[in-house]
Amino acid sequence: MTPLADRLQTTVRQDVQSMHAYAIQPSAGFVKLDAMENPFRLPPELQRELGERLGRVAINRYPGAGAAALAEALAAYIELPAGCALTLGNGSDELIDMLSVACMRPGATVLAPLPGFVMYEMSARLRGLNFVGVPLTADFELDADAMLAAIAQHRPAITYIAYPNNPTANLFNDAVIDRIVAAVGEQQGFVVFDEAYQPFSSRSWLQRMAAHPHVMVMRTLSKFGLAGVRLGYLCGASPLVHEVDKVRPPYNVSVLNAECALFALEHADEYARQAALLRNERTRLQAALAGIAGVTAFPSEANMVLVRVPDSAAVFAGMKGHGVLVKHIAGLHPLLKNCLRLTVGAPEENDQMIRALKASL
């Protein structure tokens, strides 16, 4: 063993050594439909306006008033309920980690349905919290009895409900969610609704949150159309958000990120137009998938569609060979056997994806 290898072995945490880093597929040269990104760029005139605006930003200064202005603009844009506040994060990933830090008491547990967003578990484990995953049903609904039993047994500090869920793209049954919210409240824990895909969803918990002081709503501007900006926000009762905000790293939102997000909110009509087009494309894509023998497409309230095919590895490789990159997720959980996740792209991208899928079956 080399001196460095020996040093790593004795110094770096064993669980970290056993982990895999978050994987990002190389995408150069492909139709990129693997990461639920908004495929549309700004019109040229808005690109020029944004470029000029960013050129005037004082990048020689630490972030200050811009982040505060952004938080105020976001609160107005989402119509934040009275008595609630929001805090900003460098994407949802940082907000998840802030929640882990804030609730990092001895023996604390994080609970979430599986399959779900991988960062709930990763953040919990890296911060020394217990993680309990509760499998969904075979049709990707919440297992009410299993969730309630896990809540009673583990008394989780944080229960995540992705709404819609990633990677299954569905909205869970609200009657079951109501029971979970009540059960977590009785156990003195918090519920976090992760609404990353809110621009494409028919329902939200944001306005209902005010009646439940132990409920928070987390969103990101990534699916709004700013995946490259890395901007998320967490909303909840003001005293609760105030505590979480204490562990937020100083200057975590750069002046350029804040200015980009402010610009986007000022042109929200353009992003709303893009979201409407993607919702229409989702409907068209689902109709096309329904007509392909051997493909099972599941309901979606996000900008992605989960499909099951006879041999997902072969289909993934075949689509890649046809220049279309999607996400092969069969290995994430047994419920996802032979599943692929297809991002809803621009019309011509979706046409190419359908052709590549048909050719790869």
How confident is the prediction overall: mean pLDDT?
A: 95
Question: Percent range for helical residues?
Answer: 40-55%
Percent of residues in beta strands? 15-25%
Number of domains: 2
Topology:
Elements (H helix, E strand, L loop, with lengths): L2 H9 L2 H4 L13 E2 L11 H12 L9 H14 L5 E6 L1 H12 L6 E6 L3 H9 L3 E6 L8 H11 L3 E5 L11 H13 L3 E5 L20 E6 L1 H5 L5 E6 H8 L9 H12 L1 H23 L5 E2 L6 E5 L3 H10 L2 E2 L1 E2 L10 E5 L3 H14 L1
Parallel strand pairs: 1-11, 3-4, 3-5, 5-6, 6-7
Antiparallel strand pairs: 2-8, 7-8, 9-10, 10-13, 12-13
Helix pairs in contact: 4-11, 5-6, 7-8, 12-14, 13-14
Offer a few descriptive terms.
361 residues; alpha/beta; Aspartate Aminotransferase, domain 1; Aspartate Aminotransferase, domain 2; 7-stranded mixed sheet; 13 strands
What does this protein structure show overall?
Strand 3 (about 110-115), helix 6 and strand 4 form a beta-alpha-beta unit. This protein folds into 2 domains: about 5-45 and about 270-360, Aspartate Aminotransferase, domain 1 (Alpha-Beta Complex), CATH 3.90.1150.10; about 55-265, Type I PLP-dependent aspartate aminotransferase-like (Major domain) (Aspartate Aminotransferase, domain 2). The termini are far apart. The longest helix is centred in the last third of the chain and has 23 residues, at about 270-290. About 45% of the residues lie in helices and about 15% in strands. The chain is an alpha/beta fold and about 350 residues long. Strands 2-8-7-6-5-3-4 form a 7-stranded mixed sheet. It is built from 14 helices and 13 strands. Helix 4 (about 65-80) runs parallel beside helix 11, helix 7 runs parallel beside helix 8 (about 175-185) and helix 13 packs across helix 14 (about 345-360). It has helices at about 5-10, 15, 45-55, 65-80, 90-100, 120-125, 145-155, 175-185, 220-225, 240-245, 255-265, 270-290, 310-320, 345-360, and strands at about 30, 85-90, 110-115, 130-135, 160, 190-195, 215-220, 230-235, 295, 305-310, 325, 325-330, 340-345.
